[in-house]
Amino acid sequence: MIRNIIFDWSGTLVDDLSAVWRSTNFTLENVGRPAMSLKQFRAEFSLPFDKFYEHVTPGVALEELEEWYKESFQEEQKQIKALPHALDFFDFCKKHKLKTFL
């Protein structure tokens, strides 16, 4: 019997690609690096993000990059929407007393 459902946030429950891409470009521009096209971002971005930033912004402190990213993402996240049926699935889990974790 299934008792727990564990979700990933990005791309599973929400489409946050545009917000992440724009916030990444804001971060890159703050260190004097060129912005990435969406195609380039999709090809190059990887997790863990610290390795990605080491590659595209060598020598820049992660703490500084995170400050710029968070500054931009604070606004960009307002545009993030749930993917179709995500809320319905949460209602299903609640109805069936399934614990959900994000």
Write structural notes for this entry.
The protein has 5 helices and 4 strands, in the order ββααααβαβ. It is mainly alpha-helical and 102 residues long. The protein folds into 2 domains: 37 residues; 63 residues. Strands 1-4 form a two-stranded parallel ribbon. α1 packs across α4. 9% of the residues are buried. The model has no long low-confidence stretch (mean pLDDT 95). This is HAD family hydrolase.
The amount of helix comes to 40-55%
Q: How would the global form be characterised? A: elongated
Which regions have little confidence, pLDDT < 50, spanning 5+ residues?
none
Q: Going across the biggest sheet, name each strand in turn.
A: 1-4
Largest sheet: 2 strands, parallel
Mean pLDDT, rounded to whole units? Answer: 95
Question: Helical region count?
Answer: 5
Keywords:
HAD family hydrolase, two-stranded antiparallel sheet, HAD-like_sf, 102 residues, elongated, mainly alpha, two-stranded parallel ribbon, 2 domains, HAD_sf, HAD_2
Layout of helices and strands:
Elements: E1 4-6, E2 14-15, H1 17-30, H2 38-44, H3 49-56, H4 62-76, E3 81-82, H5 86-95, E4 99-101
Parallel strand pairs: 1-4
Antiparallel strand pairs: 2-3
Helix pairs in contact: 1-4
Organism: marine metagenome
Protein name: HAD family hydrolase
